[in-house]
Amino acid sequence: MGQSERREGELPPGQRIQRGWPVTHYGPVPRFKPDRWEFRVFGATADGDKTCWNHEEFSALPYASVVADFHCVTKFSMLGIEWGGVATSTVVKLAPPAEDVTHVMVWAEYGFSSNLRIEDFLDDQSIFATHRGGEALTAEHGFPVRLVVPRLYAWKGPKWVRGVEYMTADRRGFWEERGYHNLGDPWREQRYSYQEEPGDGPEL
Ligand SMILES: Nc1nc2c(c(=O)[nH]1)N[C@H]1C(S)=C(S)[C@@H](COP(=O)(O)O)O[C@H]1N2
Ligand SMILES: [Mo]
Q1: pLDDT tens digit string along 130-152?
Q2: Does the domain at residues 34-195 carry the CATH identifier 3.90.420.10?
Q3: Which atom of ligand 1 sits closest to the CA of residue 140?
Q4: Using an 8 Å Cβ cutoff, are 126 and 149 in contact?
């Protein structure tokens, strides 16, 4: 499947600008427990081992920032958001996947998950955000860490991330099993699974 061109500062089809920053998620906001928190990289890793960072270690990883647009499948968009945190490429460099990894599952608190093609996960705007506009995320927006993948609809970026699973085949995440499109490219308006074409995702 091809990729759409990124169009910074433009609205994808069917989207409207949102002022302010709504809170959108399923279920309760988890409480952050610093001594029990860890960020795990597991699955098909290059050396077969898992990598685990506690909160102090994760916070010490190289800090990056990106400015990007944010498109929610419920049709609101925010343009030019500044995110700070750990680039997905940094995680992959420090905890490399096996050569045959094609997808990742990003896991969050309460078993929430989202699947991504490795190339979307590694897009140069994809970031494990800890900050927005220089300020730490609030609990309802994903503190301490959320994924942001600006080239896809925002549900592809779990809040309250706890881990990354490297996969050698695709598997659906939480919303992708519940009616949302497996790929979620806003420029192609890939909102719902009934719009999927052969090859867009695993059998439902
Ligand atoms: N853990 C978790 N992350 C999630 C969701 C969720 O239900 N659970 N919803 C997603 C959806 S649909 C959107 S639009 C964005 C919203 O992020 P915000 O609440 O910070 O605006 O979070 C995404 N991340
Ligand atoms: Mo959303």
Answers
A1: 999 999 999 999 999 999 999 99
A2: yes
A3: 19
A4: yes
